[in-house]
Give the backbone structure.
Amino acid sequence: MYTFSSRLKTIAFVLMILGILGVGYSFFTAPKTVEDVERILAADSHHGGGHADAAHHGDAAHDAHASATEETHSHDAVKAHDTTAVTAHDSVHGAAAVAAHDDHNHDAHAKDAHAAHEGHDDAHAAHQEHLEHVLHQQQNKPWAAVYVAALFFMLISLGALAFYAIQYAAQAGWSPVLFRVMEGVSSYLIPGAIIVFLLLVAGVMGWHHLFVWMDPEVVAKDHLIQAKTGYLNGPFFLIRAAIFMGGWIFYRQYSRKNSLAQDDATDNRFYKKNFKASAAFLVFFIITESIMSWDWIMSVDPHWYSTLFGWYVFASFFVSGITVIAMITLYLKSLGLLEYVNTSHIHDLAKFMFGISVFWTYLWFSQFMLIWYADIPEEIVYFITRIEKYNLPFFGMVVMNFVLPILILLNTDFKRLSWIVVMAGIIILCGHYVDFFNMIMPATVGDQWFIGAGEIGAIMFFLGLFIFVVFTTLAKAPLLAKRNPLIEESKHFHY
Amino acid sequence: MSNKVIHVLYNDDDILMDAVRQTRAAHHHIEEIYTPFPVHGLDKAMGLAPTRIAITSFLYGLVGLSVATAMMNYIMIQDWPQDIGGKPSFSYIQNMPAFVPVMFEMTVFFAAHLMVITFYMRSKLWPFKEAENPDVRTTDDHFLMEVAVHGDEDQMVAFFEKTGAVEVKVIDKH
C-alpha cells in the first residue's frame, strides 16, 4: 500500500501555487488596449534586429501582396476584420503591417511600405489593423497557454486509459501488475476533462477567442466557415464534448470499480465485465478521439483540415501516457513498492515508448510529406506558418520526439536502465508538449508566441494538479490487483 | 576422457527450461540444444553470451541509409534532374522529404537482409547443407539437450531422468 508522502504533496502544491502565479502574471500583463500593443511593439523594434527584420518583411510583403487577395480571410486573425482595409493571408498580412508600422514610426523604410501599399492612408489603416490583430493575439496568449497545458495533461491520462483498455481487451499477461498505476494515471481524467470542458465553455461564451469560428463577426465574413456551421457551432460543439468526456469518464470509473471488486471476488465475474467494457470502450474511444481532435485542436484553424489528424494526435498522447506510466512505475519502484515489477516490465514499457515514438513520427511525416508534395495553398499554409514562425519548436519537436528517443531507446539493455528510461521519458514528454504547443499556438497567437511565465506557469499548475490527483488515487488501493486471473503470469513475466 | 555425450529428450519447452536450469546448477556442461521452434529465454537460461547481431543490424541500417542517400542523389539530382510537381530537383536537401520513403525502405532492406546473411554465415548454414540435428524428432515435437559426460555416467543418467526427460541415452561421439 502506497502512502502519499507529505514531501511529494508539498511539491504538488508548490507547483500549483507557482503555476497560478505564473498564469495570473501573464493574464495581468497581457495588453488591454491598442495603445499598449503600440508601446510593446515600439519597445521591441528598438532592440537591435527589429529594423532589419522589418525591412525584410517589407520585401516579403511586396512580393506577396499581389497574391494576398486570394485568401479571402485571415484564418487566425481574431477580430482583425472589423477595420479591414487589406484582406490578406495571415503571414502576408502580418508581415505587411509590421513593415508599415515600422515605417510609420521611423520613416526609415518608407519605400518598402509604399511599394506594398498605395499611399500613407492605406499604410495607416493597415497599421491600425495590425495593432488590433497583435492585441488579440497577445490577449489570446495566456488563454492558449492554459488551454495547451490543460489539454496535454488531460490527454496523458486519456492515453493511459486507452493503454489500460487495450491490456484488458487483449488479455495481456505481462501487464496486470501495472494496472493500479494505470488506474492512478487515468484518475486525472475526471478533473482534467472538467477543466478542458470549462475552457471550451468559456470559448463558446466568448470569454476567450482561441476558436475563431465561435465569433459571429468572423463567420459573417467567411464563406468557408459559414458552410461548416452545421457542425461547427457552439451548442453542438459542447454537446459532443460532454458526450465524449462523459463516455471516457464512465468507462474509467466503471473499470476501476470492477478492478477493485475483483480483488475480493471468488470468481472472475468482474474481470469478464471489464473485458467486455474495454472492448466496447476502445471502439467508442477511437471514434470519439478522432472527432475530439478535430473539435478541440484542428478547429482552431477552421479552414485547414487533415484526414489523419486524429491518428496523429492519438499517437502523440498515447506515447505520453505510456511514458508517464513508465515513469510513475519507476518512481514507486524506487520507493521499494511494486515488488513484482521487474526489469522485463520496464523493458516492455520502454519498447512501447520507442515504438509509439516511431509511430508518431510516421504519422507526422505522412501528414507533412503529402501536404508538402501536393503544395495546395489552403493546405500548405499550415506548415508554412509553422516553419516560418515556429521553426525551432517545429523541428525541435521532431528531434525530441523521434531522433533522441530512437537513439536512446534503440539498445535493448538501455530499455532496462531506470535512469535512461526516465531521461528518455522527460525528453518525450517535453517533445509532445511542444507538439501540442505547435498545434494550438500558430492559429491563436501567431508570431507572438513565447514560452514565458504563462506557458511554464500553466505546465506547473497542471503538473502539480496531476501529481496530486494521481498519487491520491494510488494511495487509495493496494498496488497489486491481487485477484486478477492473469496476475501470476504477470508476476513471473520475464523476457 | 572419452567424448561421450548424453542426449536428453523432452517433449515440452517449459520442462526443458527447468531442466536447463537444474543442469547448470549441477555444473554439467550443455553442449547444444535442438528445438523444433525458438524457445523464448533459452539462451539466457543456457548462459550463452548475448547476441551481437543487433549491433550488426544497426550498422547495416546505416549502410542502407547511406546507399539510399547516395543513390537518390545521383539518380534524382546529379544524373537526371526533373521538375516533379513544381519542385525542380536542384538540391538534395530541398527535395529530401520526397526521398525519405526510399531512405527508410533501403535502411530496412539492408538491415534485414544483411542481418539474415550474417546469421547464416555465423551459423555455418548454406543451401544444400546436411542437417546436423542428431535426432529427427527435434524437427517435430521433441527438444533435445546434449550434455558432455564427465565423472560417473550412471549417476548423470539418473540425474537427467529426474528432470522430466522422456528419454535419456548415452552416445559415443567421434
